[in-house]
Amino acid sequence: KWPQIIFSGIQPTGTLHLGNYFGAVDKWKQLIHSSNGDVILSIVDLHAITLPQDPKSLHSSILHMTASLVACGIDPEKCILFQQSKVPQHALLGWVLGTLTTMTRLYHFPQYKEKSATLKDIPLGLFTYPVLQAADILLYKSTQVPIGGDQVQHLHLAQHLVHTFNNKYGVTFPIPEYIVEVESGAARIRSLREPEKKMSKSHADPKSRIEITDTPEQILSKIKKAVTDFTSSVQYDAENRPGVSNLIDMHALAVGRTRNEIVDEAVGLDTGKYKLRVADAVIEKLSPIRSEFTRLLDSKDYLVNVLADGSAKAETIASRTWNEVKMRIGL
Ligand code: ADP
Ligand code: NA
Known about the structure:
- By secondary structure, the protein is mainly alpha-helical.
- The chain folds into 2 domains: 5-181 and 300-329, HUPs (Rossmann fold, 3-Layer(aba) Sandwich); 206-295, Orthogonal Bundle (Tyrosyl-Transfer RNA Synthetase).
- 55% of the residues lie in helices and 7% in strands.
- It has helices spanning 18-34, 45-48, 55-71, 89-98, 103-107, 110-116, 124-138, 152-169, 216-224, 242-255, 259-265, 271-298, 300-329; strands at residues 5-10, 38-43, 80-83, 144-147, 177-180.
- The strands form 2 sheets. Strands 1-2-3 form a 3-stranded parallel beta sheet. Strands 4-5 form a two-stranded parallel ribbon.
- β4 (144-147), α8 and β5 (177-180) form a beta-alpha-beta unit.
- α10 crosses α12 (271-298).
- The model has no long low-confidence stretch (mean pLDDT 95).
- It is found in: Mitochondrion matrix.
- Keywords: Aminoacyl-tRNA synthetase, ATP-binding, Ligase, Nucleotide-binding, Protein biosynthesis.
């Protein structure tokens, strides 16, 4: 009954790393390629400001993220790539949805607990973050939402808000399904320093991740220093040998082969030698992305235009939904 609409978002904070690339961006590229309906990708700057941001660097991070996504192969002609704050209906629908859920429900979100743990005083926006996220999804009547595993509860809130809204005001939104990347077969890339954790742009140590803009020298150095263990053979065992297994995953994804093929080829190598092979593969994978990224950053006008075009397309859909919402509610 509902046309297929795929929605996902990414915050313009930090630089894309291999985890984002293999866990999210690569998946989006496949969806853009295979889907019949629209794929809508939002650079969620309104979410970014739920934690303190420096205005100058936030502004350049938005263009930086746009350049990164395009350099990774997200074709702005084939999807709607846009900047969240350029479409005011996100905040408007977020407000309405905030009237349909309770503080009790929001208190228990693990992401909120984690992010607010070190703060003396918690911004209201950080607390209501999942409500804005629900608005992002509902505004486009999204049917599928690719997310990371840590976002599942947030998607349940979005589904709950659809039920609540539809029951109260008449059927307006489809129930959004989520696509968790781990279930889709993609690996969770781990931190190079603490392999029991995921690779993340929010970890303080930049040596814990490989950013898509890293130079070959940086990539080699980070992979050489990657934490492994005291066994030197190259074998896949995610539970007991997360460091080595992570190298195998990165390698397999970089060259587009299976873990088994990779392990078979590494017979006889110790982890030290194997790291050089992994570094080569990652350098080769990232080198065209990095040069395209550098080229795009020099064409700031192009990037500004990409976001303006995408945001205009997004707003066409968003304003249609918002008008319908107002009509349903009696505003
Ligand atoms: P980060 O933790 O680096 O800030 P985000 O939370 O902004 O990443 O996630 C952006 C997207 O990248 C999400 O879809 C998330 O699932 C994916 N992602 C983030 N880190 C990883 C990882 N280490 N491995 C696989 N996918 C990841
Ligand atoms: Na995160």
